[in-house]
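hey so i finally got around to running the thing on that chain from the lab meeting. sorry it took forever, my laptop kept dying and i had to restart like 3 times. anyway pasting the input first so we r on the same page abt which one it is
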Amino acid sequence: MVSIPCPSAGDRSPFRRPAEPAAGLARSTTPATRPRRSRARRLASSFAFYVGQVLLLGGLFMVYRLGRSVADGRQDEALQNALNVWHFERLLDLPNESGIQRLALHSTDLLEWANRFYIGVHFPAAIAFLLWVLVFQRAHWPRVRNVIMLSTGVALVIHILYPLAPPRFLPAVSPDIPFVDTGVVIGPSAYAAPGAEAANQYAAMPSLHVGWAILEAWGVITILRWRARWLAIAHPVVTALVVVITANHYWLDGLIGGGLVYGAVLLTRPARWRRLTDVTLAPARRVRAVLSPRQPALPGIPGQAVPRPALVEPRPPGSLARVLPPPPATATVGPATATVGPAAATVGPIGPTAGQVAPDPGSRPPLSAPPVSAPRPGAEGAGRGEPETAGELTTAAGYDVSQGSSSAIPDRPGPVVS
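ok and heres what got predicted. didnt touch it at all, straight out
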């Protein structure tokens, strides 16, 4: 029998595993400070991300404050637009803002609370909502950020192109429209505090108070899975009532602000957002493709890049036995047994049969052992000088089994058994 070496046979196997590195070398290549460096790198990356997002939103807020400087000197246009909006709302049969404020004037406490809500809830609520999403709901941050940037950006364009005075300024243009500036009469006023002169009082259309409140409610409802999340709807409802009874916005301002947020939500859906970014970023991608170096092409194949070599993973120990072809097996020749009786087959002369090609006379025929014939009944092969076993047959034919070669090839077929 021929034994096949097994890779798992220990030191006797010719296939050795790669030597493991020494303990000192392992300590030098894997220092103990590597986890600390990795943790510091992650902290630095997170800090840079947070700072970048804050600077992005801060820049948007600075652009928002520049709206007042652009609208300066356009008070007459803003007042005329206010009259047009007032009459247009009457055509739409919207509720009269002055009538709702007249009902709220019966309670000074309610109006004072409304003034404080208008001043102290708008920006703090927006900042708290954005920080909550950025820190604790980071997976939803890209879409929330895109929604607020799109809606606020379009609102800023409308503020600049269409200046609009709030309802509290209408009595100066039309005394028949009874509005009360609750911030001045009851207080507190949003435009009497230090630094309030930077606020754009002619940017009533659209209302970012209502728009951002709808954005915050949408974010809470879509992110959380609690049943209580639906209470967030109260925030835009209360905000819309507050801006009306304080005479800071029209109904139409809130409707357009909410429409901008709704449109931004539709545009930032994954499929639409990918199409939008593909269209808007196509010129930049073309420029980058021109400036970036290209990979060399294969010789004779224009336009085809050189493929990168594939990484070959090391095979685990014991896998070489499955890859290497098995060695030629050596048959063990033992005593042959033959069936004695009339069923013994007659062996004819060896030669090519139908469908085979006759061998070349000048070439050596393939190695083969003479067929084993059954002894005649009552006759002893040893007495006649004939071989009895298959081993003797192969030895007589000149085929050495142990060496795998033949010293003599029989030129005639084996004996014929009749």
